[in-house]
Design brief:
The complex is a heterodimer of chains A (217) and B (196).
Chain A lengths: L6 H8 L5 H13 L1 H19 L21 H14 L7 H4 L24 H26 L7 H37 L5 H13 L7
Chain B lengths: L8 H9 L4 H21 L3 H17 L10 H31 L6 H10 L3 H6 L2 H12 L2 H11 L5 H8 L3 H21 L4
Helix pairs in contact in B: 1-2, 2-3, 2-4, 3-4, 4-9, 7-10, 8-10, 9-10
Classes of the chains: A mainly alpha (217), B mainly alpha (196).
Chain lengths: 217, 196
């Protein structure tokens, strides 16, 4: 048998995961193959270096933000209601409730209704109250409906929740891509010592438009 | 004296499926450190590792119903995390080439660029690392993705080859082949970096 046929056995021996028969066959091969003996010793040295000089790991950030289990009802409703709030032009502070990833959904392009009559100072509070009331109302309606019988067709609220979920995913992917691209540009700048300048600024603006949390990173 | 029973990961996931959100908190507390350690070695930047870990737990929450009875939670969790790491690597390749095209000389090879980029680290991390640790990190970063996965799961997560095969969905013999190739590459890289 050639050396390649003993590669699996050699790895098995190195990690103590080898059948006795295979180990005996390997031992026999090692007795007559200096090359495989050297490989085994070299791999053992690599393992030793990996153990003694394990690369540093950055400190674990406490950033895991978890949605409640009932997100499919309450959170989906919240998304739907917030979508409506945004459409109504009162959704300035709405993004935080949507952001399972700490990112928010930008306002939708269409804006068919005029803004609600709220003062700029009271806008956040008004939006939050509106959202809370709407969630409670729709949740109660949803629970009442589900306790009697399930609707056969997708309700407008469900459809809107699905759309909001899809949009969130799209925004997350876009923000993630932009975040990554900015990191690459900055790395290039550090490495080359040349500022990309305008391009970088333009990209940051695009990123900020997409994700208001980018500026604080 | 009261006897406290410790729930297994799988029991916690079953509880999660039945609506007990607290059980996810226990799973996160149990796995966030090893998962972050693993992911931070698969991706280049700590913030990317943070995002991948967060998304992994989100997917566990989203797809708890899809968890097969009899399967191991950790295997499933690492599968999700690895898929996300691969997505990240694909995205990196896509944007990496774009940035190379705009900032590198025309004759610079994207592969070299990627290797240099992935071997870089933040100054803060460099300060905390010894020269030898830095060399090991650079040697790991040079490994092809599939070999690095196997080596990290084996050396730093302490999995059996059978378990790694389960995580990656490949035969155990393939895991060992990749491990052989990874150790061979590491041996050459460490030698070239002056680590013996």
């Amino acid at each position: 048998m050639d050396c390649a046929s003993f590669h699996d056995h050699l790895i098995g021996r190195l990690y103590g995961e080898i059948a006795p028969d295979d180990d005996a066959a390997l031992e026999s091969h090692l007795g007559e193959c200096p090359s495989c003996r050297e490989t085994l010793e070299g791999f053992a040295r690599v393992r030793s270096v990996l153990a003694t000089d394990e690369p540093a790991v950055p400190r674990l950030p406490r950033v895991v933000v978890l949605r409640p289990r009932a997100r499919f009802t309450i959170a989906a409703l919240a998304a739907s209601v917030l979508g409506a709030a945004l459409l109504a032009g009162t959704g300035v502070g709405a993004g935080y409730a949507l952001g399972a990833h700490g990112r928010s959904t930008p306002p939708l392009a269409s804006n068919p209704s005029p803004p609600a009559a709220a003062t700029p100072a009271g806008l956040d509070e008004a939006t939050q109250r509106f959202v809370r009331d709407e969630i409670a109302r729709r949740l109660a309606a949803s629970q009442a409906a589900s306790s009697s019988e399930k609707p056969a067709a997708l309700s407008p609220a469900d459809l809107q929740a699905q759309l909001a979920k899809f949009e969130r995913k799209m925004n997350d992917a876009r923000a993630s891509d932009l975040d990554y691209m900015l990191g690459q540009i900055e790395a290039s700048e550090v490495r080359t010592g040349t500022r990309i300048g305008k391009t970088n600024e333009a990209l940051k603006n695009v990123a900020l438009a997409s994700n208001p949390y980018m500026g604080s990173q | 004296m009261s006897v406290q029973t410790v729930q297994t990961d799988e029991e916690l996931l079953v509880a999660l499926r039945t609506g007990n959100a607290d059980s996810l908190g226990v799973l996160v507390a149990r796995w966030e450190v090893p998962l972050f350690r693993f992911v931070s070695r698969m991706v280049d930047r700590p913030e990317d590792a943070r995002d991948v870990c967060q998304e992994t737990f989100m997917r566990i929450l989203d797809k708890a119903d899809a968890f097969r009875d009899g399967a191991r939670f950790s295997t499933w969790m690492y599968q999700i995390a690895l898929n996300l790491c691969r997505d990240h690597a694909r995205r990196k390749r896509r944007w990496g080439h774009l940035v190379v095209a705009s900032s590198e000389p025309a004759d610079a090879a994207p592969r070299e660029y990627a290797a240099r980029e992935s071997s870089g680290s933040s100054p803060a991390m460099a300060l905390e690392e010894s020269e030898r640790q830095g060399a090991v990190r650079r040697a790991l970063a040079r490994l092809p993705h599939d070999q690095r996965e196997v080596l990290l799961l084996k050396e730093y997560e302490g999995m059996k080859f059978r378990e790694i095969a389960g995580v990656l969905g490949i035969p155990e013999s393939t895991v060992k082949s990749r491990m052989y190739a990874a150790l061979d590459s590491m041996r050459s890289s460490l030698t070239s970096l002056g680590i013996h």
